[in-house]
Amino acid sequence: MAARKSRIEMPVQDPTARASNFEQVALGYTEKMALEEASRCLGCKKPLCVQGCPVSVNIPGFIKLIKEQKYQDAINVVKSTNNLPAVCGRVCPQEAQCESKCVLGRRGQPVAIGRLERFVADWELEHGTPEVPEVEPNGKKVAVVGAGPSGLTCAGDLAKLGYDVTIFESLHEPGGVLIYGIPEFRLPKDVVRKEVNYVRNLGVKIETSFIIGRTTTIDELFDDGFHAVFIGSGAGLPMFMHIPGENLNGVYSANEYLTRINLMKAYLFPEHDTPIVSGKKVAVVGAGNVAMDSVRCALRLGADKAMIVYRRGREEMPARAEEIHHAEEEGVEFHLLTNPVRILGDEKGWVKGMECIKMELGEPDKSGRRRPVPIPGSEFVLDVDTVIMSLGTSPNPILVQTTDGLGAHKWGGLKTHEETGRTTKPGVWAGGDAVTGSATVILAMGAGKAAAQDIHEYLESGSTDW
Amino acid sequence: MNQILKKRVLTPVTKEIVVSAPHIARKAQPGQFVILRVSEQGERIPLTIADYNREEGTITLVYQEVGFTTKLLGKLEPNDTIMDLAGPLGLPAELPEKGCVVAVGGGVGVAPLLPKCKELHKRGVNLISIVGARSSDLIILEQEVKECSDELCICTDDGSRGFHGFVSDKLKQMLENGLKPDEVVAIGPMPMMKATCNVTREYGIKTWVSMNPIMVDGTGMCGACRVTVAGETKFACVDGPMFDGHLVDWDEAWRRANTYREQEKCANERCRCGGEH
Ligand SMILES: Cc1cc2nc3c(=O)[nH]c(=O)nc-3n(C[C@H](O)[C@H](O)[C@H](O)COP(=O)(O)OP(=O)(O)OC[C@H]3O[C@@H](n4cnc5c(N)ncnc54)[C@H](O)[C@@H]3O)c2cc1C
Ligand SMILES: Cc1cc2nc3c(=O)[nH]c(=O)nc-3n(C[C@H](O)[C@H](O)[C@H](O)COP(=O)(O)OP(=O)(O)OC[C@H]3O[C@@H](n4cnc5c(N)ncnc54)[C@H](O)[C@@H]3O)c2cc1C
Ligand code: SF4
Ligand code: SF4
Ligand code: FES
């Protein structure tokens, strides 16, 4: 039987309804849908899809088990290489990774690998009993800085190898960007909590409200008996444009805006105590995933107009296609080839407008994208009352400032050996956004995995060569 | 951990708690603060570490009940625990090793001033302290400040005790009478710190202030705490909270501190009618 060319669509919440609630947008496959989609997979002997997955999930293996309706076995296969499948199934840029390599993509649509991964992960969260392997403790202690995807993965893998692992997390809740950044409607926090609990069940201890570089330092962790340290502290430092008016009331960094909403649940104010300014005319500057999340949150907080202001064109927007598509469906306006010049305030110091200039695309720059240049005399004022700066983030300098011998690039990223994640300081590994700058969940996890492997080999060997 | 060991009511709206927090006590230095959360739905708020005891593993917090979260905190009693407590945050205060310093504290600002006074006293600096409040019953930590000061002046806005007027007026008087301190440290409500800076500016005396902008994470992640100092944007939680007061954009700081005034009123109403989590 020839496989069908197109994949099974995933049901989504109606765009008008969802634009005013924080419920999940993409609803996930039913069992029937999953079985039908799974049946499309050819179970290739040399699966190309696996090469596209940074953690090499055995894709044909788990899909075959779905076909056999052995869902627990299927999820166990996924989990043998991916500790956070319910998260990855939702937020991996699959179209650029596993699915981009699937052979079916040559003649039609690739297998919806991400959706199937999500299906089995959700199945387990609902029906299954997560399998916790029995391990013999090996008596060695490892400290992990940061409970984001890289830290959780590294910790989980080391625990499975018998290490006594403690994660130190500066916020009051573990999860990193998964908890404070990505909104509920894309990644329910319950899902994140369950995945974090799985890592806890592996024996990993998580100390929250504990800031390495403040509460204690990396050097002191070694004094306290840790044999190795993995840094997965992310890239949490927000950038601003340094234009006039940026400190007016009603100007947020995307980080602050999203943290208030997701971590602190400001959308439930006053049941939750943290407030937020819910503007009526909101402009988000930037066009990455973070910008899309911010602008869609603004809509859900009741904005009449939620706008993306971006200095390049449509083709150059860095956000995932699906997110841009969802934002458009929900009614977000796009002001492309437009760059803010200054933010205007009223007599009380609140935002009342944003002066912008039109741009055109010139010669390609270092990144290969055509460089936007301002068109003289094209300034105009955009009518807004809230501005959210989503210009990217860089790693927080606290660790470098407080750790002897920990080397970093000028822009803040930690210097590491590419394959092993070893930093310039013996006994200290790093991975994820702290090394690469803002990237993806799965790349952060891949780095956590690679480091766990190398930590194990290093400590096993007893060598002191670095 | 995070257990409240002792509690003292300093004025009807100001409380002092001693909290078990060995990790924080081990590293705390004058000028640093903590961020805490009182309930599952709670906001994160910053409070200065007013004192610490490394041997006993405790820190002391002094807070004024001004709104919802500080009122909830006020309801906690010894043996209760503070849900989340993170620190020590911010940079330690840069304090001089010798010479003469005037420490000016207004209202609850006396609490964050105290660890600096203690440290200055320990270093052998000649310390003159000016402590003020709206009226005599709102003066806090008088004894503690007195113990580490070479001279102490009490001021009240209503004249119910000591000098009748603002702490900044008292400082002005002292300077007019020929006092020549090397530095001034002023901590209290923003208008008080601003007024103090206006007084010292004329005399060219370096004046440290402790900024208290709205914060969320306290680790440099959100930018909520930005203040303009010498024309540059600084994050008070990592670059401060102590800054050269002559370089601070006070009007902007005041405006930003009032961003959520409407919402705070709403939360506060709920507290008053006993709405609890
Ligand atoms: C809004 C938003 C949307 C995104 N959407 C997607 C998406 O759809 N798909 C995708 O693949 N990727 C997405 N990303 C990117 C992805 O989330 C990150 O690449 C990934 O989370 C990086 O993982 P990490 O473990 O390196 O760091 P993080 O997730 O940033 O975690 C780092 C953790 O370390 C903690 N920490 C930092 N410093 C210290 C310290 N000194 N001591 C103790 N703890 C510390 C932090 O509090 C944090 O919890 C998005 C990012 C954002 C911000
Ligand atoms: C570094 C620093 C140290 C501080 N030290 C002390 C101290 O030792 N003792 C003390 O009594 N107060 C201190 N404060 C102020 C204290 O944080 C606020 O009084 C407290 O957050 C008020 O919260 P609330 O919910 O009770 O009041 P709300 O009704 O929410 O607010 C009342 C006032 O507090 C300010 N505020 C509200 N939320 C925050 C927040 N998350 N961060 C900062 N300010 C906020 C508001 O601007 C408003 O002016 C400090 C602030 C900072 C930034
Ligand atoms: S982890 Fe991500 S890239 Fe790998 S198979 Fe799953 S969805 Fe694809
Ligand atoms: S490449 Fe496509 S068809 Fe082949 S195993 Fe992978 S998912 Fe299945
Ligand atoms: S409080 Fe978030 S950056 Fe300072």
Task: Provide a quick synopsis of the model.
Chain A is 34% helix and 16% strand. Chain A is an alpha/beta fold and 466 residues long.
Structure description:
The complex is a heterodimer of chains A (466) and B (277). By secondary structure, chain A is of the alpha/beta class. In chain A, strand 11 (351-364) and strand 12 (370-374) form a beta hairpin. The termini of chain A are far apart. Helices cover 34% and strands 16% of the residues of chain A. Chain A has 18 helices and 16 strands. In chain B, helix 5 (167-176) runs parallel beside helix 6. Chain B has 9 helices and 16 strands. Chain B has 277 residues and is an alpha/beta fold. Chain B folds into 2 domains: 2-89, Translation factors (Elongation Factor Tu (Ef-tu), domain 3, Beta Barrel); 100-257, 3-Layer(aba) Sandwich (Rossmann fold), CATH 3.40.50.80. In chain B, strand 1 and strand 2 (14-20) form a beta hairpin. The A-B interface holds A 170-172, 208-211, 214-216, 236-238, 240, 242, 246-247, 249-250, 252-253, 255-256, 259-260, 264-265, 268-275, 277, 348-349, 396-398 and B 23-24, 26-27, 37, 39, 41-44, 68-69, 83-89, 216-217, 219-224, 226, 228, 233, 238, 252, 255-256, 258-260, 263-264, 266-267, 270. The structure holds flavin-adenine dinucleotide (FAD) (2 copies), iron/sulfur cluster (2 copies) and FE2/S2 (inorganic) cluster. One iron/sulfur cluster binds next to helix 6 and helix 8 of chain A.
